[in-house]
Amino acid sequence: MMRLFSLSLGILLIGVLMNIVFNHYFQPVGLKINWMLIFMLLLTFRHSSISLSFLGVFAGIILDALSHGYIGLYGISFFVTLLLARQLIKLFYANTFFALSLAVSVMTILEGWISLSILSMLETELNQSSLMLTSTLPLAVLHGLVTPFILQSVIWGEKHFIGDTA
Questions:
Q1: Contact present, 107 and 85 (Cβ < 8 Å)
Q2: What is the torsional sign of CA 26, 31, 35, 36?
Q3: Low-confidence ranges of the chain (pLDDT < 50)
């Protein structure tokens, strides 16, 4: 349990660095990949620990601080998304690249919808449907395409840091 939490915290810090540095240089189709969301979803799909959902709150608050937006917006959406992902593990039980890519894409759409719903409550002139079509859906496809590469790095980290219990 402690090894999983340490691995998750380390992967979270790598996700922070990738969000800060890598997203500055790599923005396919003008979209910034949410590395922290992908990492946290993959860890949640591979391990059903409730502590990952609470670590998702921490990851979301870090993203809120980096985005200079409303504090708690990403924290709430990450927490709800990771809790739902824990329940959907049964549907995506096959730990294949395709199944996890599909799961990450679906959960990215859900996280985007949750974030935009909260944001539309705070800003009434926000057009939620157009933002879903122009940013969230293409980002979900991009997340699905990137997921196999991230999954390989997560599996490598599990083998080296968790060991035989992974």
A1: yes
A2: positive
A3: 166
Determine the pLDDT at residue 92.
63
In this structure, what token pair is assigned to residue 158?
């599990």
Q: What is the DSSP letter of 69?
A: S
For residue 15, give the H/E element and its range.
helix 2-17
Most distant pair of Cα atoms in the chain: their distance: 52
**139: how many CB neighbours lie within 10 A of its CB?**
21
| Contact (Cβ atoms closer than 8 angstroms) between residue 119 and residue 73 | yes
Tokens of 5: 């939490």
CA distances from 46 to 81, 148, 152, 160 (A): 15, 13, 12, 16
Look at the chain and count its residues. Answer: 166
**Helical H segments across 18-164, by residue range:** 23-25, 35-46, 51-67, 73-88, 97-122, 128-131, 137-157
Task: Please give the Cα distance from 49 to 124 (Å, whole number).
Answer: 37
> What was the pLDDT predicted at 153?
85
Residue 141 has a CB neighbour count (10 Å cut-off) of 15
Cβ partners under 8 Å of residue 121, min gap 6: none
Quick one: DSSP state of residue 163?
Answer: G
Hey, CA dihedral for 100, 105, 110, 114, is it positive or negative?
A: positive
The pLDDT of residue 61 is 87
